[in-house]
């Protein structure tokens, strides 16, 4: 089984970052941009995907820093 990805999200008016599947954030507070940076660092270090959620909880962006199971195809 692969490593869990990292998720940056808003809960109770605070931006947080956690490993997916964990109920507890590893970092809390600051702006969305600050939490995105912390989540990105953790995802790069772990070689996993970073999911950034919008304020409403929907997925706004995903970035992969590991072995992407669906890499982009050349358009040639």
Task: Give your account of this protein's structure.
This protein has one helix and five strands. It starts with 5 loop residues before the first strand and ends in a 12-residue tail after the last strand. The mean pLDDT is 91. The longest helix is centred in the middle third of the chain and has 15 residues, at 32-46. It has one helix at 32-46, and strands spanning 6-11, 14-19, 27-28, 49-53, 59-64. A five-stranded mixed sheet has the order 3-2-1-4-5, with helices on one face. The protein is globular. The protein has 76 residues and is an alpha+beta fold.
Mean pLDDT across every amino acid position: 91
Strand order of the largest sheet: 3-2-1-4-5
Beta-strand segment tally: 5
Structural class: alpha+beta
Report the span from N to C terminus.
Answer: 34 Å
Low-confidence stretches: none
Instruction: Give the biggest beta sheet.
Output: 5 strands, mixed
Q: What fraction of the residues are assigned to beta strands by DSSP?
A: 25-35%
- Name the helicity range: 10-25%
Structural Rg:
13 Å
How would you describe the shape?
Answer: globular
- Run of helices and strands: EEEHEE
Output the number of helix runs.
Answer: 1
Could you give a quick summary of the protein structure above?
With 76 residues, the chain is of the alpha+beta class. The protein has one helix and five strands; from the N terminus they run βββαββ.
């Amino acid at each position: 089984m692969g490593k869990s990805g990292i998720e940056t999200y808003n809960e109770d008016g605070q931006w947080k970052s956690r490993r997916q599947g964990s109920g507890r954030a590893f970092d809390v507070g600051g702006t969305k941009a600050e939490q995105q940076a912390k989540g990105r660092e953790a995802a790069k270090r772990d070689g996993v995907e970073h999911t950034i959620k919008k304020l409403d909880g929907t997925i706004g962006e995903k970035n992969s820093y590991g072995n992407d199971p669906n890499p982009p195809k050349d358009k040639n």
